[in-house]
Specification:
3-stranded antiparallel sheet; 104 residues; 5 strands; two-stranded antiparallel sheet; elongated; alpha+beta; single chain; 34% helix
Length: 104
């Protein structure tokens, strides 16, 4: 198990962990409850860890692409049509803004 990202707060850690998991990377957030006990002191206790060392290179690439904005830029022009209500949604959304149906 290797630490891949030190997060500023739990929300950031869970966002990155969710991204990795959605791409098939086994990842977990550790230390999220420790960060609140230290107030404003800088602390790298809240972190994202990759549980399988064989996935570390792929996780690192995904993380760099996410932090550089490459993932968002790739999806920005990728419109999709909701299978339920037929509304067109922008590429960065995973659910239809009108009816809540998940992207196919």
């Amino acid at each position: 198990m290797k630490r891949i990202h030190n997060a500023r707060h739990a929300a950031e850690a869970h966002l990155i962990c969710g991204l990795l998991q959605s791409c098939g990377i086994a990842a977990v957030v550790r230390g999220e409850w420790l960060a609140g006990g230290f107030g404003e002191l800088p602390l790298d206790a809240c972190a994202v860890w990759v549980t399988q060392d064989s996935q570390l290179d792929e996780a690192d690439r995904l993380l760099r692409d996410f932090l550089d904005g490459k993932i968002a830029a790739a999806a920005i022009n990728e419109r999709w049509q909701c299978p339920q209500c037929k509304e067109f949604c922008e590429g960065q959304f995973t659910d239809c803004w009108q009816c809540g149906t998940g992207r196919p």
